[in-house]
Structures are given as structure tokens and as C-alpha cells.
Amino acid sequence: MNAVVVRRLGGEDWRTWRRLRLAALADAPAIFHGDVEEERAYDEARWRAWTEDGVKVAAFDAGVPVGVAAGRTSADRTGVVELFGMWVRPEARGGRIAERLALEVVAWARETGHSQVELWVIGGNDSAERVYRRLGFERTGVYEVHPHDPALRKYVMTRGTRTHR
Ligand SMILES: CC(C)(COP(=O)(O)OP(=O)(O)OC[C@H]1O[C@@H](n2cnc3c(N)ncnc32)[C@H](O)[C@@H]1OP(=O)(O)O)[C@@H](O)C(=O)NCCC(=O)NCCS
């Protein structure tokens, strides 16, 4: 079996971010906020700039991209990184790849001087919430109604960058 490699992406890896991001939106449109047709139309310059903004982390199995997670500095809360866009290819799930992706985003947040990492998880997405809880994320009590489905709520989870793993 090949070992899965997890690493941060640079601007030159923009095609990898595009490939994983568009696959995630196509696979799980109810979970992610982006619009697949809108993002598919972005040009190279926009994908490069997006790849370089904050951090993008990808997992590769025998060189093939199988998972992704992203982090960006919060626009309105000092010291906070927002983790978003975490997705693992369905055939690669169950191997704890998501933990490694999320921990790399946390490591980036710590290295860049942030003290907290936050994310949104949709109520009922239990496999994702279990991943986050194992890594020390806890619900804050803050939630919003899901913009596409008023029957669903999305919850904020948070952890420190220097606590846990
Ligand atoms: C959530 C997700 C990133 C987890 O990735 P992963 O690398 O498979 O994570 P893990 O291996 O730790 O498995 C997590 C759970 O998924 C479940 N799982 C295992 N194999 C699975 C499979 N083939 N298909 C679906 N779920 C599976 C397990 O029940 C596991 O639960 P456990 O905590 O009781 O062990 C992945 O399921 C995914 O991409 N989901 C769709 C997008 C999404 O929800 N992203 C998170 C947005 S907040």
C-alpha cells in the first residue's frame, strides 16, 4: 500500500487546488458554499491567487490528489484562522486523511501567529464532526440557519492552536 503524503500547496500547484476544489463542490454541493459552475469559469490568475491566499493543504496517494483542506485568516477576528473546504475523495475515506489535513492547517495557523482555528459544520454531518472532536474542536454554541436549506443549522467549532495535537 502507498503511504499518503500530505503537504501544503504553492502557487505553482494551482491546478491541484482547482481539481480538488471542483471535485469537492461536485461531490457535496449541500456542504460547501461555492458554486461549481461559477468557480469552473475562474481563470489561471484567479486560481493561482486563491491557492496562495492563506493555506491550501492536499493529500496525495501515489501522486494522485485525494483530499484537501484550506485555511484563511479571519477578516474580522484577530488571531483566528477559518478552516474550510475540507474534503476527501469518497474512495479514500476512512483512513484518517482528514485529521492530517486539518492538523496541517492548525500547524500553519500556529506558525503564522494565530491562536484559534474555527470552522463551520452542518448539523448531521456526523463523520466530519467526529473528526473535528477527535482533534479537540468543540462547538461554541454559535450557529446559523443553512443558507440553502432552512431545515439545517451550521455550527461553529473552535480549538486553540497550542492545545491538543
Ligand atoms: C468528513 C471527511 C472529510 C472525513 O474524511 P476521512 O479522511 O474519511 O476521515 P476519517 O477517516 O477520520 O473518517 C471519519 C468518519 O467517516 C466515516 N467513514 C469511514 N469510511 C467511510 C467511507 N468510505 N465513506 C463515508 N464515510 C466513511 C467513518 O464512520 C469515520 O467515523 P469514525 O469517526 O467513527 O471513525 C469526508 O467524509 C468527506 O470529505 N466528507 C464530505 C465533505 C465534508 O463533509 N467535509 C467537511 C465539511 S465541515
UniProtKB/TrEMBL annotation:
Alphabetized GO MF terms: N-acetyltransferase activity
Pfam family, one: Acetyltransf_1
Alphabetized SUPFAM superfamilies for the sequence: Acyl-CoA N-acyltransferases (Nat)
Gene3D superfamilies: 3.40.630.30
Keyword Heme: no
Top-level taxon: Bacteria
Start and end residues of each N-acetyltransferase domain: 18-162
Keyword annotations: Transferase
InterPro entries given in the database record: Acyl_CoA_acyltransferase, GNAT_dom, NAT_camello-type
Protein's name in the database: GNAT family N-acetyltransferase
Source organism of this protein record: Microbispora cellulosiformans
